[in-house]
């Protein structure tokens, strides 16, 4: 596939992913003070569940296109050693590492944000895929830290993505 088409697809998915995190931090967090914790917990639970159920459609292609391009660059440089010795290779690898950190937050979020429940192996898988439980199980005490961390990663990734072409 043409490289520019892959980049376009990568960017569209990146906007959707980081945009959702930015919306949570910049819009939802300030609204919390106006609506109170009880309503916030309900709203945030349903929002979180919706994001967790639909966003794999953007997140999976984002990482597939990313790794596809990454290994393409490694191959064109004649191997990982010569690739990582360039500033482009180093910054792209740092970007990939940060992106894996963000993916870890997204992947583990059903277990980070929801009260622990005793579940079978199938129950855990179901919870991982579609988020089970109700609004009362949602941990709003972890909302700020995890979302600020995620937004920090998202902004860092985008900055590195541009810096790697400039330095
Ligand atoms: C949250 C995750 C990610 C975000 C927000 C993101 C964002 C971006 C952005 C904004 C660009 C700049 C595109 C341009 O200016 O043309 C870019 C390029 C790129 N990204 Fe990602 N990315 C993410 C994950 C990944 C991952 C996991 C990899 C794999 C290692 C990756 C590999 C690349 C590559 C190779 C380019 C250069 C594309 C080119 O040749 O123009 N990205 N990314």
Gross geometry? elongated
> Per DSSP, what share of the residues sits in E-state strands of 2 or more residues?
under 5%
Measured distance between first and last alpha carbons = 27 Å
Mean pLDDT: 96
Give the bound compounds: protoporphyrin IX containing FE
Characterize the quaternary organization of these chains.
Answer: single chain
Query: Total number of helical segments?
Result: 6
Helical/strand content category? mainly alpha
Low-confidence stretches: none
Helix content: over 70%
Keywords: Membrane, Transmembrane, Transmembrane helix
Transmembrane segments: 6-28, 55-73, 93-113, 145-165
InterPro entries: DUF474
Organism: Thauera phenylacetica B4P
Give a brief rundown of this model:
The chain crosses the membrane at residues 6-28, 55-73, 93-113, 145-165. Helices cover 83% and strands 0% of the residues.
């Amino acid at each position: 596939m043409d490289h520019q088409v892959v980049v376009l697809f990568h960017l569209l998915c990146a906007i959707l992913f980081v945009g959702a995190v930015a919306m949570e931090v910049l819009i939802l967090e300030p609204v919390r003070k106006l609506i109170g914790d009880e309503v916030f917990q309900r709203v945030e639970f349903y929002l979180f569940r919706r994001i967790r159920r639909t966003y794999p459609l953007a997140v999976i292609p984002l990482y597939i296109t990313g790794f596809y391009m990454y290994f393409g660059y490694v191959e064109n440089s004649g191997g990982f050693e010569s690739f990582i010795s360039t500033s482009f290779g180093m910054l792209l690898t740092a970007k990939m590492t940060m992106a894996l950190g963000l993916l870890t937050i997204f992947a583990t979020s059903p277990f980070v944000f929801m009260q622990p429940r005793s579940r079978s192996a199938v129950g855990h898988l179901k919870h991982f895929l579609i988020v089970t439980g109700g609004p009362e199980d949602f941990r709003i005490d972890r909302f700020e830290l995890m979302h600020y961390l995620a937004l920090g990663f998202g902004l860092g990734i985008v900055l590195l993505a541009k810096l790697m072409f400039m330095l």
